[in-house]
Amino acid sequence: xxxxxxxxxxxxxxxxxxxxxxxxxxxxxxxxxxxxxxxxxxxxxxxxxxxxxxxxxxxxxxxxxxxxxxxxxxxxxxxxxxxxxxxxxxxxxxxxxxxxxxxxxxxxxxxxxxxxxxxxxxxxxxxxxxxxxxxxxxxxxxxxxxxxxxxxxxxxxxxxxxxxxxxxxxxxxxxxxxxxxxxxxxxxxxxxxxxxxxxxxxxxxxxxxxxxxxxxxxxxxxxxxxxxxxxxxxxxxxxxxxxxxxxxxxxxxxxxxxxxxxxxxxxxxxxxxxxxxxxxxxxxxxxxxxxxxxxxxxxxxxxxxxxxxxxxxxxxxxxxxxxxxxxxxxxxxxxxxxxxxxxxxxxxxxxxxxxxxxxxxxxxxxxxxxxxxxxxxxxxxxxxxxxxxxxxxxxxxxxxxxxxxxxxxxxxxxxxxxxxxxxxxxxxxx
Length: 430
Ligand code: UGA
Description:
Elements: E1 2-6, H1 10-21, E2 25-29, H2 33-40, H3 51-58, E3 63-66, E4 77-80, H4 95-107, E5 116-119, H5 127-140, E6 149-152, H6 162-167, E7 172-176, H7 179-188, H8 190-193, E8 198-201, H9 203-234, H10 238-246, H11 267-281, H12 286-309, E9 316-320, H13 336-345, E10 349-353, H14 357-366, E11 371-372, H15 376-380, E12 385-388, E13 409-412, E14 424-427
Parallel strand pairs: 1-2, 1-4, 2-3, 4-5, 5-6, 7-8, 9-10, 9-12, 10-11, 12-13, 13-14
Antiparallel strand pairs: 6-7
Helix pairs in contact: 1-3, 4-5, 9-11, 9-12, 12-13
The structure holds uridine-5'-diphosphate-glucuronic acid (UGA).
């Protein structure tokens, strides 16, 4: 099958490489010439485990990139994988997907056979019908459902395990309005269909499933954070409680790690968008707003715990972890951001370390006056206190490094540091 993919970000590149690995012929379109060149040389524009290997095998063979939409004309399916970033009010900015749909629409009349356009970008119910489909029809002069089809097929890939998640998904969601679109998606995912539950539904439902999935998971973490905060007040270990409730099938053991909260490019953006969209309809989403509020509060609680032990004005304070979670270089909405801001407000001298160089470079752009060191030892050396923000597995091995500190306060936001003699250890929810 010939598949075009518009957009070479984290989703587009991962999907392109994985579909090429399924045996499809994949053409990736991106407006950025340097990204296109790198892809054709087998170099990934993003860092994801397993991706370099896939590109190494398929780039220049069954996967190639172009800046020219006309190269898509032989495709049976074109997947839109463009970003839908947040506007200031939390609503999604559909300008990129609309522009992509317009460029694609302009070449649709040249297609050899009627294609299916698959929306993989995270969009609200209605965006496909009100923005994307009209752009395709406007620019092509063709009619959706007749001359081409449109489908919604959200992704549930996690950063840091996107390739693995693509190959072993919990589910596939096919949101279609006609048989051509459904047949096309069945063919795209043929190698998975036998073993993976497939949800065949409408385009609006498919769009909502993506938001509901992220809203549920983020709210689950906020709920466990709220319970954890109460546990801490009672001197109860929230992780023991979480392990126990996780044994109930109806609750499940995953996404029960309490601490400094959720970040990244998805949960914060998608919850904000769903809240804004619900308000537009006149519905007040009280629980989702509470999930956001609890999440905003966790870094403040971490700083409060620090204040209980030490006044950090004029003191060196170590921040361990800058990425929003381990295994990624992404610092978008990382909980390290409010932590560093809070420390700077208190007049502390912030020294930071993250095992991922990309995460450090990103954070340096945002906080140029923080000192970034190359490993944990010099970061902790001379620090009055340390705050652990990301659960990088390597942090679990830290031990004697804490003896290099000038103070002894260690506040752990992720339950990754072992409590031991010689440090004043505070867990956020335990
Ligand atoms: C999330 C979803 O898990 C994916 O299914 C979805 O496809 C993706 O968003 C997206 O919409 O593109 P991701 O943002 O990569 O994936 O990260 P997660 O692994 O879900 O973690 C999100 C945040 O929750 C992290 O900051 C993590 O530290 C935090 N978290 C997660 C907790 O605080 N506790 C937990 O128990 C689990």
